[in-house]
Specification:
Elements (H helix, E strand, L loop, with lengths): L24 H58 L36 H5 L10 E6 L3 E8 L8 E10 L2 E4 L4 E3 L4
Antiparallel strand pairs: 1-2, 2-3, 3-4, 3-5
Length: 185
């Protein structure tokens, strides 16, 4: 029912939408954002691994620092009560440096000296917890040295922590600094 001269109700020929050239926006975003997030995530993982390794190494080296400090304090206390330094320990505990593993010492390891008042027994020192380091106590008439040796990563490079004490004017003076060589090895 068209009236003469009236436009048709619907266009006889609807214009066809033109096709867009290129990729859809969502695909462009996906191709840029996803790799960006993956790259950022990778960097964070690397930093996390590095930080964790550093934290673990510091926790393990804390054992050596703490233990030799306790042994130096024990040597000082023994000197104050005996009037002389304790004799050297006959051998370190354990006998060889642990490599990338803990060593579980026994009370007998700390009391190997032939005299009851020598070495670790004189210091009244022993460890019952597993240890990453080999501990040694050496003394002379005028001083002592406490040393820890360890190989935390098992690569054959040994880390060493050492503290010294000297008898001066009837007192033991302990070095305030721990000498460290390759501390994170």
């Amino acid at each position: 029912m068209n009236h003469p001269g009236a436009p048709p109700p619907y266009p006889a020929h609807a214009p066809t939408p033109q096709k867009k050239s290129g990729l859809p926006v969502w695909l462009i975003v996906l191709l840029i954002v996803v790799p960006l997030f993956v790259a950022i995530g990778g960097v964070l993982v690397v930093l996390g691994v590095y930080g964790t390794r550093k934290y673990i190494a510091n926790a393990k080296t804390a054992e050596a620092r703490s233990t030799i400090s306790v042994m130096a304090r024990a040597a000082t206390e023994a000197f104050e009560s005996r009037g002389a330094l304790c004799p050297s320990a006959s051998s370190p505990v354990p006998a060889s440096t642990p490599r990338a593993a803990k060593y579980q010492s026994s009370p007998a390891d700390w009391s190997r000296d032939s005299a009851a008042d020598a070495g670790f027994a004189c210091l009244k020192f022993s460890m019952d917890a597993p240890q990453y380091y080999q501990y040694e106590y050496r003394a002379t008439a005028t001083g002592f040295t406490v040393t820890a040796h360890g190989d935390l990563d098992g690569d054959g490079v040994v880390s060493t922590f050492e503290v010294e004490g000297r008898v001066t004017a009837g007192r033991v003076l302990v070095s305030p600094a721990i000498q460290e060589t390759n501390p994170e090895e």
